Amino acid sequence: MTNSLYPNDPLKKTLIIGKIDHLNPTDSDKALINLIVPTNETYTITIYKNDVANISASKDIKLVPYSAISDPKTDITVTTTGNRIAKILFKYPIRNAFSSVPVDASGNPITTGTASGHILYNFYALYYNRDTNSSIDPTKGEWSGAINLDNPSLTATLSSDGKALILQDTLLSIPLTEDISHILAVNKGKYYLDPTDKNKVLTDYSEEQRIIPSMEVGFDVSITSTPAVPISAVAPVRNQITITFSNAVLTPYFTSTNPISNAKILFLSDGSIVKLSSIKRVPDTFNSLIFNIDNSNPLPSGIITIGVGSPKTDSGDLIDACGYIVPFTKLAVNVGSIPPTLESAVQDTDSSNKDNTVIDLTFSTSMLSDVSGKGANNPANYTFLDSSGVSQPIQATEFITGSNNSKIKMTFKNLLGAGLYTLKIQANAITDSIGENIAYTTYSVTIEDTTQPSVIEIIGLNSKTGDTAITDSSNALIIKYKTPMNIIGGTANSTCAADKIDNYKFYESTVSATNAPLPIGTVATPLKNNNWIRFILPVGTYPTFDTAAHDGTPNPNYSIYIGYTGLDTINYVCNTSGNIYPLCSLKTITATVPLIDLSKGTAEIISDSELVYTYTDGSIVNGQFYHNEFNKIDASDFVIGVSDKIITTPTPLSIKDVSLSQDGTKITFTFDPKTFTSAYKYAYIGASESNTIIDIFGKGLTGLPYNKEIINSVPSTLVGISLTDISRTPVAGSIANGYPVTIAFKFSNAIKNTSASDFLIAFNNAINIPIDSATISTVNANTIILKGTIPYIATDELINSIAIRTSADSSFLSTKDINGNTIKSFNYLFVDNLSVEIANMTFLASDDLNGASLTAVFNKDLDFTTNPLLSVANSKTGIDFTN
């Protein structure tokens, strides 16, 4: 709201205290503008949605003087609805309606000590034209003329237009009138202690705050003969329903011992209670209530039948304004299903956000809180793109306190450059608090860069022993800015481009010639979305960037000029918003780092198709670790081999894909599924002869390939399972009487430790078999032997099914392989012992075994690598296959 008196004062533009309810709109939504301004002036009232730039309507209004409230017959009315609701209506909005006086337990005003109640300052009731009682003790059951705001069953509210004070008491009723009316004293009474204090007594909103004169207003009380009944229901969303009744009803009264969550007011068609979170009135009405449903059990969408009221006649949680229990009534209601929407996304320009760009998101409703799933506070559910389509890393998303989970503060890892960005939310990526999915959403966000450019660090390359000047392997330096910088051909003037070499001097105080602009032949290259600038200088033109120790300690004689003044020129750099880096702010080299040597890293197999290499070399300067990074890699750049022992000559694996981590130190190699098993303990990672690998300094690799032991995180998997022994004679087992049984599990790697609790054996798909023990085979370390007992109810023929599985997910199992990896869990597998299913003997002559042949078909594949036929033939108990 603005006018000619305050055209540029923002304090005069934030004036609305009121809210339009978009879920329950009325024909005449109202808001009170709480500001005292001169009359006989024209003011512009502007309505905007979330953002002052998003104007939806405006209107010019001339404020004219109005007469004071003075006549109790025309300027104030008191009406009752039933015997439990009273409405005190003034001609104009009033101030200090809730002024109160602290009192003791007897209702006497106090100035010190703990108050037993707070009585309304400006109102006092006289029932039947006399002062019946002023006690605030509810146990007396008498009618008190004092209105105690601390009475838990009393609610006192001011209408949205500021004109009406509405009082409701769910437990105590106002006495009925017949021949004699009641009186309400306004700006007078027992607790009207200082008639001249404009901060306490009732006044209007005029510039001089005119005091409303003391008045007595009569009112009558009557009740109907029938209770209010529900007549219609509207449910625009699944967690809110508005019900209209035939007569006025009370907002229910709840306590800590009888909370609203236990309320028996709404019922589904199956008789189940609808759990509520709050109940409120539709503004300026008495016969409609808004029931907010707990998000844990929202209503089903579509047309449903809902029961309203009490199924009992002698008790109930919903009472009408005459004190009657609202009877149980069924209503048909069409429950809406409204997906949440993103209403706005605007930059938070709070000056406290110096290191990170922050935007505030406003959703149409309360959203799910789940930092790892479909919650609005999970950063992974958003994509934020610059004008070139480059994704900007999000550091955190958190709900704004007091927003009922409808507003998110999104903090980025860096300061973003000025420009137009796009926020994207994929369909069904996030949900509201009742599980409604959001649709695919894009929102344009304008980012303003109001920060001064600054430098995070300056790093160079280590030199070699004996070098005093930079060489081809040490002539690069990187300046890391905090914000995206303007570059040649960028949005700002190229004169201040951060990659323009004329704007820098690298002055080394022992060589006076370096106190000059960077020499011809220097190449400046933007990196990391123009946040970094790399400089490669001509060989031999500058001293080394490090000291003779070659440990990362920078040469202290360097002063880095980012912009400088000449005799008649000023050289400077600026960011993408045109903000200038401060002149005369000299920088020094932070640290130097070595070239990348693949042998100085670690490797880990993280799945059967993925291997991760992490470069770990670097320099420690003043307790801070600095490192080089990969800048450009391709799958064809690498040669990778794996083995269970040190690799002499690698057998190259086929690399399907490579990806580089954000910090440039971790490479994830992807291969065909099942390329790796838990048996591999060594890896070779080297560069191919034609590799094009370069680091952030524009240099290639140095040193040796990686060829050593690795971390193997591939879980051992089940290779085979067999019923190795089963008794046909019931015996007393160690756990229960039955048939002893032995089951063998073979895994892809040697087992280090196991536990019987990791497995379940089911008999005939119903009975869990007790497991006596789980041990590692002394013959084959990759085999686990389980011993258990089948129930005695099994038949002698043992024509029964036995199935086995792991008892839990891998993360809860204690069976681990020799590498310390938990075995991979598996579901039920049916097992039986090795047996011959078909046997056929062929004779060349009757009753003559010479030349006869025996064909046997087994129920399982035979492993002749472990038990070759020759070993069977030579066994004393086996058949001599050679004859």
From TrEMBL:
Entry superkingdom: Bacteria
Protein name: Uncharacterized protein
Lineage of the species this protein comes from: Bacteria, Bacillati, Bacillota, Clostridia, Eubacteriales
